[in-house]
Specification:
Distance between the termini: 12 Å
Helix content: 25-40%
Strand content: 25-35%
Shape: flat
Number of strands: 11
Radius of gyration: 19 Å
Structural class: alpha/beta
Largest sheet: 4 strands, mixed
Length: 215
């Protein structure tokens, strides 16, 4: 795939994605590395644009340089964002009560605390990502190790084999306590990210080192 055809494929995907206003986004491609420039109207749109680019076959990495520009009617101060962040986290039954702390500075949300599973951490970030006024999220929530390394590895290998999009035999999994290392190769950046997400979903995983290469 040439740089020009890859660029066009990413533009087509962004135009297809309903949560992204592609007219405000510029795309360049060079040797599989795609750069997104321009501006978006929310952090959620920025996140969706990056995920959309990652889904395109041939993309090996995404450099995201999008600026978040909220319409004046949606400008929020840090106190307002903090109140709504605490509220939405309290509503989510998949985020342990009182285990996630929120800090807001100039619209940037930092999440801290300790939870038992990766999906708790993931859900907390997803909850605050969509709030008006948020310009970025730092997810510093940690995960408490709780199971043996052999169980972690076995659970991940079983999960990988269940996904039709992944060729599990091409992915090696090593576990040292809750630290998991993925190695091998996959066919797309989307598959690489899917493998990492799958690994994170296993109980007891505290860190995933993704060494998978994209063909």
């Amino acid at each position: 795939m040439t740089d020009q055809s890859l660029k066009q494929s990413v533009l087509d995907e962004l135009n297809w994605e309903p949560s992204v206003k592609a007219a405000h986004i510029g795309v360049t491609a060079r040797n599989g590395v795609v750069t997104l420039t321009g501006h978006v109207e929310s952090y959620a749109e920025q996140w969706a644009a990056e995920r959309g680019a990652e889904r395109v076959t041939g993309v090996k990495a995404v450099a995201e340089k999008l600026e978040v520009r909220y319409p004046l009617t949606h400008v929020q101060d840090d106190e307002q964002i903090a109140k709504r962040a605490i509220q939405v986290l309290s509503w989510d039954v998949f985020v342990p009560k009182d285990q996630v702390k929120v800090k807001i500075e100039n619209g940037w949300v930092t999440l801290t605390g300790a939870v038992d599973y990766y999906f708790h951490k993931h859900n907390a970030e997803a909850d605050v990502r969509k709030l008006h006024g948020v310009v970025g999220v730092s997810n510093e929530i940690t995960i408490k190790p709780s199971v043996a390394a052999s169980d972690v590895r076995g659970n991940i290998k079983s999960a990988l084999s269940r996904y039709a999009q992944l060729e599990a035999e091409r992915i090696s999994v090593a576990a040292d306590g809750g630290h998991v290392t993925l190695s091998g190769h996959v066919d797309s950046l989307h598959e690489r990210n899917l493998a990492a997400t799958t690994a994170w979903s296993a109980p007891g995983v505290t860190y995933v080192e993704n060494l998978l290469t994209v063909n």
